[in-house]
Design goal:
This protein has 155 residues and is mainly beta. The chain contains 1 helix and 9 strands. The chain is globular, with a radius of gyration of 18 Å. Bound molecules: zinc ion.
């Protein structure tokens, strides 16, 4: 009986670890893209370029491997396509992001050049969230989440 309890406790500990791993924190305050393994952090840097970092389950940055990232954003009739080059532990876009508010962004990540691509779509709202410390596109507070509805959120 005692071994069963220990096994159960280990199982519960394992489960809570697994769910904690799903909610990794962006190390640089960017947006987490969790539709790809390893997860990626999408960040607009001070030069208005996009930085992509890959994260392990603990949220630690891991050097890019063979990933191929493409970002298509802005005006749908005349979208801006950005390609990425490796720079140390991250990928950096070849161009700056276009001007505009809440530009639609499509991020495509292939784990290898011939792999199926994972896609993340969101709008790039660079305004600072009134509730948490991040920009809206990388917001980590609960607004927009299902559990808390839209309370305290006016846009
Ligand atoms: Zn927020």
């Amino acid at each position: 009986m005692k071994t069963n309890i220990i096994a159960l406790a280990a199982l519960i500990a394992g489960l809570s670890f697994a769910s904690a791993a799903e909610k990794i924190k962006a190390p640089n305050g960017g947006r987490i893209i969790d539709s790809v393994e390893p997860h990626a952090e999408f960040l607009i840097n001070a030069d208005k370029k996009i930085e992509i970092r890959f994260l392990d389950d603990a949220g630690k940055v891991v050097a890019p491997a063979a990933q191929v990232v493409t970002v298509t954003m802005g005006d749908r009739a005349n979208p801006t396509k950005l390609a990425f080059a490796k720079d140390g532990d991250k990928l950096v876009s070849d161009k700056t992001i276009p001007e505009g508010k809440e530009l639609p962004v499509v991020v495509q990540i292939k784990t290898a050049p011939d792999a199926k691509s994972a896609t993340a779509k969101f709008s790039l709202n660079l305004a600072k969230c009134p509730t948490c410390e991040h920009a809206e596109y990388a917001c980590t507070c609960a607004h927009g989440g299902e559990e808390k509805g839209h309370e305290g959120h006016d846009h």
